[in-house]
Write a structure and sequence with these properties.
The protein is α+β, with helices and mostly antiparallel strands and 450 residues long. 18% of the residues lie in helices and 29% in strands. Strand 10 and strand 11 form a beta hairpin. The relative contact order is 0.15.
Length: 450
């Protein structure tokens, strides 16, 4: 989750995110014979960098096209005016996910997108790239069976309408389930309903490249006539765009060594605060966050999702868990990468492996135990108040699990999957061959040398 969405330095929370775009694309969009998915991205807004057009695509009166000019300046100069000032932030359109550019109206990029409203304020759009081309689908509101029309007199119809409104209000009042964006307590993360809007055949695409709009890196799609589309889709780092470019060129969906500069400051702060979790004079190498989400474990051929501890666990002072349930698509290979409810993923051949022991504690403590890696040990640290019978009630923090540092073969940051923007993962490899991955951008930043 982006730091500008209000993530505290010690917490990572994806529970309000939608199902990742790559999973949605595989389930709902890909057609037989279309080939493998290269990448997919959610979007809500596209704006225009075309002389003679306003950013929303409407024509300027008496405009004279004089060429595209400095395309890189458009994001800062033109879109800032379109977004308004800080004082009227509530009235701003959403930020740009795509910039459509060209030398004049009716260029190829404009022709493809001019029939699509510039902004979809509520419903998401799904862009997918395959070897056959680029397609756009839009989310639609599922239709429900219409209630039968009341029959009889005017008063009977009015009474029927009032009764219907009363039932709807009652349903709202009695539904006290927790909601995380569109995700609902105890319900699996749902797939959206989509309909196609446009398709750009691969033969019309001249290629992909990295480009820069002022200080913002973009993935640039260039069409045959020189016009094109710049994809931002919440990517703010050059390495994210490099990853997207690699996917577009058919490279595997994995990249090690992700720096994710946008989280550098909170990561540094978290590392300083981690001194409170360590013993006196203990050197902290890596500090994880409290990470709200389930644990998945691939144990040999058995998939455990959500994972429940296999070992003996201490009793906790916790209430009923009120999260959404994992999506059905998370049972598929790598499906967990797009599931907002899954924060940790372990792989091991046997239940006595170290990654499974760590996964047990993370699942039992609901992600409230924080991973701490020092020069001496690997530990999961939790607030002592979380334990019903702590070993030392006076200590504010307790190590729920400790392993010697020699049991860790290595740690690394990764970008993985075919959804844009990719979410950085921290991978911990143990000497027994097991692996634990954490969807924790702050901890992942610690694993990359400065």
């Amino acid at each position: 989750m982006r730091a500008n969405r209000g993530v505290r330095v010690d917490t990572t929370d994806y529970l309000a995110e939608p199902l990742g775009p790559a999973t949605v694309a595989r389930r709902l969009v890909l057609r037989p014979g279309e080939g493998r998915l290269l990448w997919a991205a959610h979007a809500k807004a596209h704006y225009y960098d075309i002389p003679g057009l306003y950013p929303d695509g409407s024509p300027k009166p008496n405009a004279v096209a004089r060429g595209a000019g400095k395309v890189g300046d458009f994001l800062g100069d033109v879109l800032s005016a379109a977004m308004g000032s800080e004082e009227d932030d509530r009235d701003r359109p959403p930020p740009a996910d795509l910039i459509v550019f060209g030398t004049a109206p009716d260029c190829m990029a404009h022709r493809y997108l001019r029939g699509v409203p510039s902004v979809s304020a509520v419903l998401r759009r799904l862009w997918t790239l395959t070897p056959l081309g680029l397609t756009l689908h839009t989310e639609i509101v599922p239709r429900t069976a219409a209630a039968p029309e009341p029959t009889g007199s005017f008063f009977a119809k009015a009474a029927g309408g009032i009764a219907k409104i009363g039932r709807e209000i009652a349903d709202i009042v009695t539904d006290n389930r927790m909601r995380f964006g569109a995700n609902v307590e105890d319900e699996p993360i749902a797939l959206p309903t989509l309909e196609p809007l446009l398709e750009i055949p691969r033969g019309r695409i001249a290629g992909f490249s990295l480009a820069q709009r002022k200080s913002t890196p973009v993935l640039r799609l260039l069409l045959a006539d020189g016009s094109g589309v710049d994809f931002l889709v919440s990517m703010t780092e050059r390495e994210e765009c490099e990853y997207a470019l690699a996917l577009a060129n058919g490279e595997p969906p994995l990249r090690a060594g992700a720096r994710v500069e946008w989280v550098a400051k909170p990561a540094a702060t978290a590392l300083k605060r981690a001194a409170d979790l360590a013993r006196p004079n203990e050197q902290v190498v890596l500090a994880g966050t409290t990470n709200f989400g389930y644990v998945g474990v691939q144990l040999g051929r058995e998939l455990r999702l959500p994972h429940t501890p296999l070992g003996e666990m201490p009793e906790l002072n916790v209430q009923k868990l009120r999260w959404p349930q994992p999506a059905a698509t998370s049972q598929e290979p790598d499906g967990w990468l797009d599931d907002p409810t899954i924060a940790f993923w372990a792989q091991a051949d046997r239940s006595d492996r170290d990654a499974v022991a760590v996964a047990d504690v993370l699942a039992h403590t609901r992600g409230l135990a924080r991973l701490l890696l020092t020069r001496d040990r690997v530990a999961l640290i939790a607030a002592t108040a979380l334990l019903r019978e702590p070993p030392d009630p006076t200590a504010p923090l307790t190590a729920v699990l400790e392993l010697p540092r020699t049991r860790v073969r290595g740690v690394a940051a990764e970008l993985a999957g075919r959804s844009l923007p990719p979410k950085p993962l921290l991978r911990v490899d143990f000497t027994d061959g097991s692996t634990l991955r954490l969807r924790d951008p702050i901890a992942a930043r610690h694993a990359v040398p400065a």
